[in-house]
Automatic annotation (TrEMBL):
This is Putative glucose-6-phosphate 1-epimerase. InterPro entries: Aldose_1/G6P_1-epimerase, G6P_1-epimerase, Gal_mutarotase_sf_dom, GH-type_carb-bd. GO terms for biological process: carbohydrate metabolic process. GO terms for molecular function: carbohydrate binding; glucose-6-phosphate 1-epimerase activity. CDD domains: D-hex-6-P-epi_like. The keyword Acyltransferase does not apply. One of its GO terms (cellular component) is cytoplasm. Its EC number is 5.1.3.15. It comes from the Bacteria. It catalyses: alpha-D-glucose 6-phosphate = beta-D-glucose 6-phosphate. It comes from Massilia yuzhufengensis. Keywords: Isomerase. Belongs to the glucose-6-phosphate 1-epimerase family.
Amino acid sequence: MTIATHTNVGQLPAIRIQAPDGAEATVTLYGAHVVSMKGADGQERLFLSAKSALDGRKAIRGGVPVIFPQFAERGAGMRHGFARVSTWRLEDSGLEGDAAWAEFGLALGDLPPSMADAWPHQFMLALRVTVRANELAMALTVRNLGAAPFPFCAALHTYLLVPDVCEARIEGISSDEISIIDKLDAVYPHVAGRALLSTSAGTRVMEQGGFLDAVVWNPGAVDAAALADMEKDEYKRFVCIEPALLDPHMLEPGKVWRGTYRLS
Ligand code: TA6
């Protein structure tokens, strides 16, 4: 059985991995961006905007943007960092037990000069995406290959598909249950690492390790209307629940940081 196949999403080259049980994920090389994950039950788990750019000129709206080395505008660099707008390499793919996986890499030498000059640290990123049954697992590793320490922030800005955001209930992130009334853009530091999202489509379990914090975002009607890459009513169909490392982490030479995420 073929585990990984080359495909295109819009104008973007992508890799589709499929487990023997039918679970599959599609990842564009642009951003190492998981744009779709279907469980073995055939159901899509991730939101992707019908108006998203899919030509490499702008970050993809939906799926799982990889945020590195800056979160949002918390720093002097690009908003949400360069990883989501850089072209990664497919390193390898295969089967591990009954799970299909693919690993993507990005290093300083892969960046165009304008980006590399703005963040000239000898880093190496690896994103491993694994699917089986009704589970998506992602592991992001950051290596410092240089001689000096560097600070970074990171997140997996996951757009979870929901039937209607108004009915979504999120538990495990804050002491209170979170629901979205109008709009929400909230940071939750030092989360426990396991959260539940309940809707009429069922309950999703999210587990994170290494990422100490979480961010929950939905733009609501007014902010969504201002987003050029989102249809008017699409905000109702997702909630972003993002494992995040928001306080800059100082990575010493030769060291590796690892963040994990599992959606089931
Ligand atoms: O993670 C939440 C957030 O930082 C929000 O403030 C919101 O603007 C969102 O990310 C999307 O950012 P983007 O740059 O993709 O439009």
